[in-house]
Design goal:
Structural class: alpha/beta
Number of strands: 5
Strand order of the largest sheet: 1-2-4-3-5
Distance between the termini: 24 Å
Number of helices: 7
Strand content: 5-15%
Largest sheet: 5 strands, mixed
């Protein structure tokens, strides 16, 4: 399910839902992914509440508890995206806000699939780069962070502990 609390020019609910489905298939993630596109204020509040970081961020992922993952129509979790930061990133990168939201969604979905760029020695970055090309997207989130700082460091974080153990390799 996709919920827009902030509208994005050129990106409808159905377009983002189709992209999420394509991304899930490419990652081999059969579980449902919920996406919230909202403002930086909401992302800051979520970041403060769940990660203890009192700052806005571009994307947050919240893996579902094991109980939800074991149901017939299992839910992988939720991804929250800041439309404000997506607009800033898109302007700085010279691509559409719609594409930026897709880049952020892909990054969040990879976290829901169990990838963690802070601990996996580049595995998530390689996977994200391949998927970005496959899904016809601009530079991946991790690649941008590595290019800026020479290391992996993005605002995107996962919430939950068991998801990392279920890393999917494809």
């Amino acid at each position: 399910m996709v919920i827009f609390r902030r509208t994005i020019a050129g990106l409808s609910t159905s377009t983002l839902e189709r992209f999420v489905l394509r991304a899930r298939r490419a990652i081999h993630l059969s579980s449902i992914v919920n996406i919230l596109v909202t403002n930086s204020s909401d992302l800051r509040a979520l970041n403060r509440r769940f990660r203890g970081a009192d700052k806005a961020t571009d994307v947050l992922s919240f893996p579902a508890p094991e109980v939800e993952r074991n149901k017939a129509r299992s839910v992988a979790g939720d991804v929250a995206i800041s439309a404000d930061i997506a607009r800033e990133n898109a302007a700085r990168r010279g691509h559409s806000v719609a594409d930026e939201v897709k880049i952020l969604a892909l990054h969040g979905i990879l976290h829901l699939a169990g990838f963690d760029h802070e601990r996996d020695h580049g595995e998530m970055a390689r996977k994200e780069s391949r998927l970005r090309r496959q899904l016809k997207l601009e530079t991946a989130l991790i690649e941008r962070a590595q290019g800026r700082a020479g290391k992996v460091s993005t605002g995107a974080k996962r919430r939950g502990s068991a998801a990392g153990a279920r890393r999917r390799r494809a």
